[in-house]
Write a sequence for this structure.
């Protein structure tokens, strides 16, 4: 593997790298990808996630590769936002609920437009949340598994979270990356939803992750006063901190990936419980080796 410098806000770097490599496939996974952070740095998010995509598409054209390159764009279930229907499929209308989702809405349509205007092999993968031990520490799943590993090892007392009732369709990243590749191996470019078809609350994720270290959580109180206690000792292990609430929330995401399943036989192989276990195993090992991680 060779790494090259480049930046989604710097067209000439994109042209240089594409011209040097002459790639046959490009996967655009570059983004400011955190929803909450996008409320803080909304203009930058638009620069990278929206304008960055058209820069990359234009770089392909500038290099004269629009007829040979296959282009994958990391679209997102966040486009459904205040969802118009449950479950969501490729025909469900979009209703973005964050600067991140608004930027990704532009990207979705510019990919469709370049496909239609220039006959490019360009696909949108509308991927629902996908997690793994490599997930960034400020996404809820990884924050939970890291914190529970620390609590289990006596390195932390309490886990502070925002909206416990949000529902997400969480899959394992390794299944989803295969779907990205499969999209580019088809004869025609198209847009596909990739999802497990199961939705779980943040609370359920927390409960299952704690079960993994032998602790049962009992919930008490409501709203910002809700707490999660160890059912045996009564110790408070989870509490709410308002600072983790978003100005506009996406309450429920549940994907219908029948199109991908029928078209190229994709289906997830990792269950929700196995995903939690993979992340817990990894963070328990990490924290026991390096408590400051
Ligand atoms: P997203 O679906 O791309 O926004 O992925 P996240 O993992 O960042 O958030 C998933 C859901 O968990 C959202 O509905 C958040 O509001 C909710 N959530 C609750 N507490 C937290 C928290 O402490 N951090 C994050 N990142 N999300 C939280």
């Amino acid at each position: 593997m060779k790494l090259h410098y480049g930046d989604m806000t710097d067209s000439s770097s994109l042209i240089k790298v594409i011209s040097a490599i002459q790639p046959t496939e490009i996967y655009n996974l570059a983004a400011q990808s955190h929803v909450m952070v996008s409320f803080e740095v909304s203009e930058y998010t638009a620069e990278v996630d929206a304008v960055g995509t058209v820069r990359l598409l234009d770089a392909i054209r500038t290099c004269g590769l629009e007829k040979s390159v296959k282009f994958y764009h990391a679209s997102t279930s966040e486009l459904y936002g205040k969802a118009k229907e449950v479950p969501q499929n490729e025909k469900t209308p979009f209703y973005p609920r964050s600067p991140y989702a608004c930027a990704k809405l532009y990207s979705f349509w510019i990919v469709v437009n370049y496909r239609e205007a220039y006959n490019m092999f360009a696909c949108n993968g509308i991927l629902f949340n996908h997690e793994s031990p490599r997930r960034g520490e400020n996404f809820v799943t990884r924050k939970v598994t890291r914190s529970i590993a620390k609590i289990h090892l006596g390195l932390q007392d309490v886990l502070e979270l925002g909206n416990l009732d949000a529902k997400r369709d969480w899959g394992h990243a390794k299944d989803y990356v295969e779907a990205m590749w499969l999209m580019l191996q088809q004869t025609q470019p198209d847009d596909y939803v990739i999802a497990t078809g199961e939705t779980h609350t943040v609370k359920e994720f927390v409960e299952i992750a704690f079960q993994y270290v032998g602790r049962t959580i009992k919930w008490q109180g409501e709203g910002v006063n809700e707490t999660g206690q160890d059912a045996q000792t009564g110790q408070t292990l989870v509490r709410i901190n308002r600072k983790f609430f978003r100005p506009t929330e996406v309450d429920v995401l549940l994907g219908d990936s029948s199109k991908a399943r029928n078209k190229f036989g994709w289906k997830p192989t990792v269950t929700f419980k196995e995903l939690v276990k993979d992340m817990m195993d990894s963070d328990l090992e990490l924290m026991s080796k390096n408590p400051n991680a």
Q: What stands out?
A: The CA atoms of residues 216 and 231 lie 6 Å apart.
